Amino acid sequence: MAAGTPLVSTDLAMTRYNGTPSRAPLDAADSWGTLDLKLAPGMIGTRTSGKDDIDTVAGRANLAQALVLRLLTLKGSLAPLGHPDYGSRLVTLIGETSNDTTRHLARLYVIEAVRQEHRVKALTSLLVEPVPGFADTLRITLAVEPLHDDDPLSLTFELAL
User: Fold this and answer.
1) pLDDT digits (tens, 9 = 90+) for 25-57
2) Of residues 113, 56, 67, the one with CA closest to residue 90
3) Using N-to-C axis directions, what is the helix angle for 59-72 and 100-116, rounded to 10°?
4) DSSP of the chain, one letter per residue?
5) DSSP 135
6) Higher confidence at residue 133 or residue 4?
7) Alpha carbons within 13 A on the beta-carbon side of 115
8) What single DSSP character describes residue 79?
9) For residue 25, what is the DSSP state?
């Protein structure tokens, strides 16, 4: 990454898993878990205030969170807010049987959603497989090459059908 070239800006931290900047899997989420604002100790200057405040996420963790949120959001559901193409069609697979067709559709829907993210240069790997012991759950593992960053970003995402 070129010195002084920001990968992403700062945003509110929403997912439970914000990851670490490494080649190891960076992020994980599940379609049945909750996404909520992350709290952190409040600060007054350099001292803690004793009260919680909304936390933020930046850099690679921001990109990972953005990808997870895009994958969990039904495409078109943000149209009233001016974002008709935001999201993915993954959630349309809920209620389907886990078979080759469903896995191929999940793969297609992930590719479509990742292509929308302007901070991603390339999708470098994608694996869609059933979760052992959970016939109605798909595990989607992907790696992307972020824009202005040579270190791949890996995500693991489970979708309950």
Assistant:
1) 334 444 444 444 566 666 566 666 666 667 777
2) 113
3) 130
4) --TT--S--EEE--SS----SSSS--EEEETTS---PPEEEEEETTEEEEEEEE-EEEHHHHHHHHHHHHHHSBTTTTGGGT-TT-SBSGGGGTTS--SHHHHHHHHHHHHHHHHH-TTEEEEEEEEEEEETTEEEEEEEEEEEEETT--S-EEEEEEEE-
5) E
6) 133
7) 7
8) G
9) -
- Count of positions (residues) in the chain: 161
Q: How far is Cα 53 from Cα 140, in angstroms, rounded to an integer?
A: 32
- Supply 69's token pair: 């949120």
Largest CA distance in the chain: 55
Two tokens at 91? 């959630």
In one letter, which amino acid is 45?
G
Taking phi over 0 as left and psi of -120 to 50 as alpha, with beta for the rest, 148 belongs to: left
The secondary structure element, H or E, covering residue 69 is: helix 59-72
What tokens appear for 33 in the block?
């878990």
Question: Above 80 in pLDDT, residue 122?
Answer: yes
3-state SS, residue 151? coil
User: Which residue has 């080649």 as its token pair?
Assistant: 23
C-alpha distance from residue 26 to each of 19, 44, 58, 96 (Å): 5, 31, 14, 28
Q: Which amino acid is at 27?
A: D
